[in-house]
Specification:
By secondary structure, the chain is of the alpha/beta class. The protein has eleven helices and 18 strands. Strands 3, 5, 6, 9, 10, 17 and 18 form a seven-stranded mixed beta sheet that branches. The radius of gyration is 21 Å and the shape is globular.
Length: 382
């Protein structure tokens, strides 16, 4: 379709474009023509240039994470501002931006707290799938279409709140930095911000996908001397070793629980463990793999809805720390531009995490690659 002139002839008008619609769970996405309304006050309409396919998108599509349907998924995008609503001051038409699922309003308790980053205007933990005013900007076949996390990047155009839009420099390649919207900072920050990995330490990473790979990179950058990577897909091991993993383990190759194997390998347990899969079993395994006195276990993976953790509280009484980490504890609008700058200066290797790039219309193939474990991160190009 014809590309709009940013800030020009489409301003204030409905844009018709293509989007991948989830009409039901456990079914392929359908490429449809949608109508995208102009942005209202405090909102930004964006032409999406690239979007990563995150594991959380797959959890929504398979029904393990509930959502309102029909919906446009995707929350790991980068694009160009097409038009802005009344009162928007931090971006303008033509600006390159990263589309963050986690807003930073800079006004709520979490945003104002030094260590908080879970903005109270988020739509992630009890999602309603609508804009802050309770309405949608998407229509398809005459029906209202819901958004995901306030982003919805599986569409040629989307509308977001200004507080979730991160301005970046004009020379940044959007097709690569799109994963700085979610996957990469989620993993990298879990190690450097949440766990504060120390030089010479032993780390264990459960799950070697896009998020787990970023954890590995961060552990290596922090000076960890041993990084144990765990995954049931041995096809990921070669790439994991290139990122910094020293030992690769497939739990299916052992007759005993993997946490026992790790205890035997490390003597007293690891200094830091990270769960980047999203099952309660692997969360418990990660916790039990920690040193009983000073081990730190960080939960990153998104579990199925209504999951409950059950473990012996003595595991914590001895001194272990169990904690979660949301998007690497980065305040998005403040910190993502810094990560982009680090990427441009080659301080962080984002490109190597992206193993596949596909045209947007092949989105279902991208999900197949994700489910098969044949890719670390797939990026869709519009």
């Amino acid at each position: 379709m014809k590309q709009a002139k940013f800030g020009g002839e489409t301003t204030g008008k409905v844009i018709k474009c293509r989007a991948a619609i989830a009409w039901s769970s456990n079914a392929p996405l359908s490429i449809e023509e949608v109508e995208v309304d102009p942005p209202k006050a405090g909102e930004v309409r964006i032409k999406v240039i690239a979007s990563g396919i995150c594991g959380s998108d797959n959890h929504m599509l398979d029904g393990s994470v509930p959502l309102h349907l029909p919906a446009i998924l995707g929350h790991e995008g980068a694009g160009i501002v097409e038009s802005i609503g009344e009162g928007v001051s931090t971006v303008k038409p033509g600006d390159k931006v990263i589309l963050s699922a986690l807003p930073q309003c800079r006004e709520c308790d979490s945003c104002l707290h030094e260590k908080g980053n879970c903005c109270l205007k988020e739509d992630m933990f009890s999602p309603v799938g609508l804009m802050l005013d309770g309405t949608s900007r998407f229509t398809c076949r005459g029906r209202k279409v819901y958004t995901i996390f306030g982003t919805s990047t599986f569409t040629e155009y989307t509308v977001m709140h200004e507080i979730s839009v991160v301005k970046i420099d004009d020379d940044v390649p959007l097709e690569n930095v799109c994963i700085l919207a979610c996957g990469f900072p989620t993993g990298y920050g879990a190690a450097v911000n949440a766990a504060e990995v120390t030089p010479g330490s032993t780390c264990v990473v459960f799950g070697l996908g896009g998020v787990g790979s970023a954890v590995v990179m961060a552990c290596k950058a922090a000076g960890a001397s041993r990084i144990i990577g765990i995954d049931i897909n041995e096809g990921k091991f070669e790439k994991a070793k290139a990122f910094g993993v020293t030992d690769c383990l497939n739990p299916r190759n052992f007759k005993k629980p993997i946490q026992q194997v790790i205890m035997e390998m490390t003597g007293l347990g690891a200094d830091f463990t990270f769960e980047a899969i999203g099952t309660t079993d692997t969360m418990i395994a990660a916790l039990e793999s920690c040193n009983m006195s000073y081990g730190v276990c960080v939960i990153i993976g998104v579990p199925p809805a209504k999951s409950q953790l059950s473990f012996d509280p003595l595991l914590l009484l001895s001194g272990r720390v169990l904690r979660g980490s949301l998007l690497g504890e980065y305040k998005t609008r403040d910190c993502i531009p810094v990560l982009v700058d680090d990427y441009m200066k080659k301080k962080i290797d984002v490109d190597s995490v992206i193993t596949h790039k596909l045209p947007f219309v092949e989105i279902n193939k991208g999900f197949e690659l994700l489910r098969s474990g044949k890719c670390i991160r797939c990026v869709l190009l519009f």
